[in-house]
């Protein structure tokens, strides 16, 4: 029972810590050939987007869409209603090319939102402004997003492997304790059997 408890506790702790480390999504903004701002939500298969929006730096929302689920495009054209989502704040006019805006991707659960600051005049079709403010190529952005997903699963598998190792070590320790108890008990029994009988002092 002790080894099973150790294994279960270690497994839960490892998986919980792995999932906590995993929550690190990314996003970026680029332009399409028509000059529209495009939000790239590079999510992993276990992440679900609930909303995307573009706001001014003072927080005023210029465009927002909500809904989504596990199946939807990971590319959102600002001002166009995405499939499986609905616009709650339609774009009321083109974005000012020289102004700064913040694109936000909101995720379900405890996954943190991702903000990307951008200026439409600085966007291009073959470069992406990421959440750190860096401008990278499309392939580089995609590769980094894929690496984040793979790295997250490696954390999970590593946590499970660690839990199994801890459980195995716990089982060995528990087994050694039992063996030592059995050996000590057998030794005491042999010592009692080898000791001479005590004289009867009862007077009977």
CATH class of the domain at 28-136: Mainly Beta
Total DSSP E strands: 10
Work out the helix count.
2
**What name does CATH use for the topology of the domain at 28-136?**
Immunoglobulin-like
Given helix and strand content, the structural type is alpha+beta
User: In angstroms, what is the radius of gyration?
Assistant: 31 Å
Low-confidence stretches: 14-22, 151-158
Physical arrangement of strands within the biggest beta sheet: 5-2-1-9-10
Q: Give the CATH architecture of the domain at 28-136.
A: Sandwich
Indicate the topology:
Layout: H1 2-22, E1 26-31, E2 37-42, E3 49-56, E4 61-67, E5 75-77, E6 85-89, E7 101-107, E8 114-118, E9 127-130, E10 135-137, H2 138-194
Antiparallel strand pairs: 1-2, 1-9, 2-5, 3-4, 3-7, 4-6, 7-8, 9-10
Helix pairs in contact: 1-2
What does this protein structure show overall?
- There is one protein chain.
- Helix content is 38%, strand content 26%.
- The chain has 204 residues and is of the alpha+beta class.
- It has a domain at 28-136: Immunoglobulin-like.
- Strands 5-2-1-9-10 form a five-stranded antiparallel beta sheet, covered by helices on one side.
- The two termini are 50 Å apart.
- The model is unreliable at 14-22 and 151-158 (pLDDT under 50).
